[in-house]
Amino acid sequence: MDILGQIISYIYQYFDNLGFLLLTGVGLIIIYGMMGVINMAHGELMMIGAYVAVTAFHAGAPAPVAVALAGLGAGLAGIVIERLVIRHFYNQLLSSLVVTWGVSLIISQGTLLVLGPSIMNMPTPLGSFSVGPFSFGVYRVVMFLVAVGLIAGVWAIFRWTKLGTQAQATMENPAMANALGIDTRRVYTLTFGLGSALGGVAGAMFAMTATISPFFGQNYTPMAFITVVIGGGAAPILGLAYAGLYLASVQTFASNVFNEYIGYVSVMAAALLALLVMPSGISDFIERRRTRATQR
């Protein structure tokens, strides 16, 4: 057995799983983790991004341009959804869950009626490299790097830009933000649009590794919610990173010891265990420990 190849294989699988979790959750940390909206249509926004990317690619656009157009298309769709539906259900968790579930059904079934059940795809770019008997796709490494870049970009937006400052103030206390002259409706719309755009980019990235159908997004929604919920709301961006690191390690270990199905089930079990120990999420748990330490 090639020991070096086996070690690199484990490392590669870990970062592949981590990149998958981060990409699925990066848009949802804004919509759910920051805005408090249970957006069950997040997978459908990813599906819209995937269809836009495939259409643009087959029309002659380079893959990076197709991904950018996917983010733009999903972002515009998110803005329309927010203006027509979501803005009437802020601070109503159960209502937003039911309403966005209905939106997801409308989008997926509408896509099925318009485009039919046909399957579309994009080729996986960049080829592969080998270490001993093991072969690894370069694009999977790129997906991980893109996921890290998107998370860093979200952090920078909310840390350094005027929109980020206004968004944080609006999420913290909408009435006070409005009294201070912040157009909270505009902030909600742009923030929801940004989260939707990130979902579209994720869908476009996944479109190069999987076939696309009207129900494409349903493959990603559960893992996105699990990762974001475990991350917690005290620091949604860091929480997503913590949750991704934790769940990816469990999935990689279980998949190698047993099989991919057991790896998926192990993620669910690990999520349940984490919520039993840390009901408010990892970032909340860390923040409380930090507060207690400073008070001693």
Tell me what you see in this structure.
- The chain is mainly α and 296 residues long.
- Helices cover 75% and strands 3% of the residues.
- Strands 1-2 form a two-stranded antiparallel ribbon.
- β1 and β2 form a beta hairpin.
- α1 packs across α10 and α11 crosses α12.
Q: What is the compact description of this entry?
A:
This protein is mainly α and 296 residues long. Helix content is 75%, strand content 3%. It has helices at residues 3-26, 28-34, 42-58, 63-84, 93-115, 138-160, 162-172, 174-179, 184-207, 221-231, 236-257, 260-277, 282-295, and strands at residues 128-131, 134-137.
Mean pLDDT, nearest integer? 89
Secondary-structure content class:
mainly alpha
Helicity level: over 70%
Residue stretches low in confidence (pLDDT < 50, at least 5 long) are: none
User: Whole-number radius of gyration?
Assistant: 20 Å
Strand order of the largest sheet: 1-2
Number of helices: 13
**Coarse shape:** globular
Number of strands: 2
Q: What is the string of helix and strand elements?
A: HHHHHEEHHHHHHHH
